[in-house]
Amino acid sequence: MARVVVNVMPKAEILDPQGKAVIQALGRIGVSGVMDVRQGKRFEIEVDETVTQEQLDHIASTLLANTVIEDYTIEVTQ
């Protein structure tokens, strides 16, 4: 069995209102020096040895990420 981590982030050219809200909140709590925040999603999936990289890519691209506005990475760990 392996653990798969899929990280989904907004594409660089897409506005990230949640990230901007975090930047504003940091200022309100007295934190300075943070230049940018991008908010994304992390999925942890347990799979057995029958699941292929191609299937993982299909899962990420069709179910977990909106590939029009989001990029994703897949990390497989043991």
Automatic annotation (TrEMBL):
Pathway: Purine metabolism; IMP biosynthesis via de novo pathway; 5-amino-1-(5-phospho-D-ribosyl)imidazole from N(2)-formyl-N(1)-(5-phospho-D-ribosyl)glycinamide: step 1/2. Keywords: ATP-binding, Cytoplasm, Ligase, Nucleotide-binding, Purine biosynthesis. One of its GO terms (biological process) is 'de novo' IMP biosynthetic process. The keyword Ligase applies. The keyword Cytoplasm applies. Its main location: cytoplasm. It is found in: Cytoplasm. It holds the Pfam family PurS. One of its GO terms (molecular function) is ATP binding. Its EC number is 6.3.5.3. It comes from the Bacteria. GO terms for cellular component: cytoplasm. It catalyses: N(2)-formyl-N(1)-(5-phospho-beta-D-ribosyl)glycinamide + L-glutamine + ATP + H2O = 2-formamido-N(1)-(5-O-phospho-beta-D-ribosyl)acetamidine + L-glutamate + ADP + phosphate + H(+). Belongs to the PurS family. Part of the phosphoribosylformylglycinamidine synthase complex involved in the purines biosynthetic pathway. Catalyzes the ATP-dependent conversion of formylglycinamide ribonucleotide (FGAR) and glutamine to yield formylglycinamidine ribonucleotide (FGAM) and glutamate. The FGAM synthase complex is composed of three subunits. PurQ produces an ammonia molecule by converting glutamine to glutamate. PurL transfers the ammonia molecule to FGAR to form FGAM in an ATP-dependent manner. Part of the FGAM synthase complex composed of 1 PurL, 1 PurQ and 2 PurS subunits. This is Phosphoribosylformylglycinamidine synthase subunit PurS.
